[in-house]
Amino acid sequence: MKTLNKFSRVASSILLGVLLSSCTFLYIAHRLSTMPLIHDIQSFDNIANNLPYKERKTIEASRRSAVRLFSKTENDNVSSTTGTYIIANGQYYVVTVSHGIFGPCEELAIWTEEEEFLSCKEIVVLDQEADYAIIRVDEIPSRTPIKIPEELPDTSEWKQALSVQKKVYYTGYPNNVGPATVGGRIIGVTTGGWTYLHTYAWRGASGSGVFNSDGHFIGYVFAIEVGETEYGYDAFENVIIIVPTFMIDWSTILK
Predict the structure, then answer these.
(1) Rounded to whole angstroms, how far apart are CA atoms 34 and 157?
(2) Which of 153, 221, 238, 243 is a plausible cystine mate for 216, CB 3.0–4.6 Å?
(3) Are 212 and 166 in contact (CB under 8 A)?
(4) Is the pLDDT of residue 6 over 60?
């Protein structure tokens, strides 16, 4: 009888161990099966749900319209900038800074994670004064274009669109990182209209489209502000300059 009781206890312990192991295995398998895919995490609509609806839509528009551009320089190096994918009069374009464009259309490539390298069809405008370029491209299936002029502020909206402490967002490729969506606020506007933001930028972010919290396409990243110190010139931390989109001559593509 004692041997039988001992055997029963051992058998019960083994069964309990197998049951616990099975439950643990099933729990782990369930957890792994419900883990999100990287593709889901990277999706354009994976935006913090505690933001107001309009801001979430603004961020999504910023992310869905951002592309990267590569231009071959005179020294056979490659310039990398960011651009905004737009549509006007049924044609597709990318707006970026002119200082990132070197050489002809044939030596310029537009890049997205999905389509990789897309060809430039025509450099429509290369404005050195306001530092912008408008490049005609084919439709980019993985991106959603910003409608011009519908998504620009109209005349009555520009004062509020560039008001001090207005929230703004841009998506770009600073330091080859991205697409990275960065937030900030307007901190001032010069007499010429050039606008200062309290945000972050670095090389590669130039040309990124800037959107305010109302969803308007208000400008593009131009440069990092610099200041003079006792050691020379240095980046003015967290202050960048954008060019407002009213400085773009949209008539060139809206004729």
Answers:
(1) 46
(2) 153
(3) yes
(4) no
Across 198-226, average pLDDT: 90
Cα dihedral 196, 200, 206, 209 in deg (nearest 10): -70
Contact 146, 84 (CB under 8 A): yes
Asked whether the predicted pLDDT for residue 64 surpasses 90, the reply is yes
Q: Which CATH class is domain 152-249?
A: mainly beta
Rg (CA), the chain: 26
69, two tokens = 């551009």
**Backbone CA torsion sign across 160, 162, 168, 170:** positive
Question: Buried b vs exposed e over 5-31: b needs ≥16 C-beta within 10 Å?
Answer: eeeeeeeeeeeeeeeeeeeeeeeeeee
Domain boundaries, the chain: 1-35, 58-146, 152-249
CB 204, CB 82: distance < 8 Å: yes
Query: 58-146 falls under which CATH superfamily?
Result: Trypsin-like serine proteases (2.40.10.10)
Cis check for the bond before 36: say yes or no (omega within 30 of 0).
no
- Cα 161 from Cα 168, distance rounded (Å): 10
Q: Do domains 58-146 and 152-249 have the same CATH topology?
A: yes
Grouping H, G, I as helix, E, B as strand and the rest as coil, residue 29 is helix
CA 44/CA 139 separation, integer angstroms: 18
Cβ–Cβ < 8 Å for 132, 95: yes
Cα dihedral angle (214, 216, 217, 218), rounded to 10 degrees? -80
Please report the pLDDT score of residue 234 as a whole number: 57
